[in-house]
Amino acid sequence: MEITLVDGIKDGHKYELVLVDGKETPMYVASRLLTNTDRERGLGIFNGGNTWFEKGDMRATFEFEYAKFGTPEYVDVLRKRIAEVRNWVQNLDYEHSISFQVPDP
To answer: Within 13 A of 100's CA, how many CA atoms are on the CB side?
Structure first.
């Protein structure tokens, strides 16, 4: 998967885009693809700060360092963020089970 980060100013407004394999993709969707999670809330993997992720029934909160979007140092920071979340997901082995009895009629 190829990720392209685009930022700029158009008509006086700043914008930041994430392209996944050349296609503009919402940041939260790209984050799920990169981290193999089901959901993210907070400032997000692309913005840094306090963000939580869900995978199945499990949730974890991460505090990501800040880096300016689109700079060479940002790519390194983003790789570290992705690795940290992927490591958490990889170590999530769990199993849920519930048993109960019902009296015969």
So the answer is: 3
Mean pLDDT in consecutive groups of 10 residues from the start of the chain, 105 residues: 90 91 91 91 84 91 85 88 93 81 89
Please report the pLDDT score of residue 42 as a whole number.
Answer: 81
pTM, rounded to two decimals: 0.76
Closest CA to 29 of 21, 16, 42, 39: 39
One-character DSSP codes across 5-63: EEEEEETTEEEEEEEETTEEE-HHHHHHHHHT-SEEEES-TTT-EEEEEEETTEEEEEE
DSSP 71: S
For residues 19 and 27, is the Cβ–Cβ distance under 8 A?
no
The contacts of residue 45 (CB under 8 Å, 6+ apart) are 31, 34, 35, 51, 64, 78, 81, 82, 85
Cβ contacts of residue 42 below 8 Å, gap of 6+?
A: 49, 50, 51, 52, 61
